[in-house]
Design brief:
Elements (H helix, E strand, L loop, with lengths): L3 H48 L2 H43 L20 H6 L2 H20 L1
Length: 145
Amino acid sequence: METRTDIRYDLLKAELSLTQNQVDKYDQLSITTKTWAVTLWVALAGWAFQSKQGQIALIGALVPLIFWFFDGYNKTYRTDYKKRRNEVQHALQALSSGKDLPKDFRVPNLPVHDKKTAVRNMLLLHVGLPYLILIIISLLIYSKF
């Protein structure tokens, strides 16, 4: 017969697995987003050089901007799940060492995503720098034609 502690432990393990899977999913989405941004940008930059039309390079500056927004948005979700994963991890550690769960801790308690932080996440250096570099290079290509 399972005790109340065993049930809590099993719920925490399941939630830890779920939140880690979500963090992994958003990490993969970030990599995929950056890959598509670079792929499309390189295609447009090559087209601009081949046709010697700077306007295409300006379109190439828009591509990273669009993907930058999506990457910032994904970062918001990833951060929320990472925060919850860490809370669950600490609760599991407390439970396994014989301590009580924090009084305000709820299982399961999946994060509610604040969409307002997407723009703030876009401005994080590790999120925005690759896109910013592509935009600057596009503008330099445009200025050459």
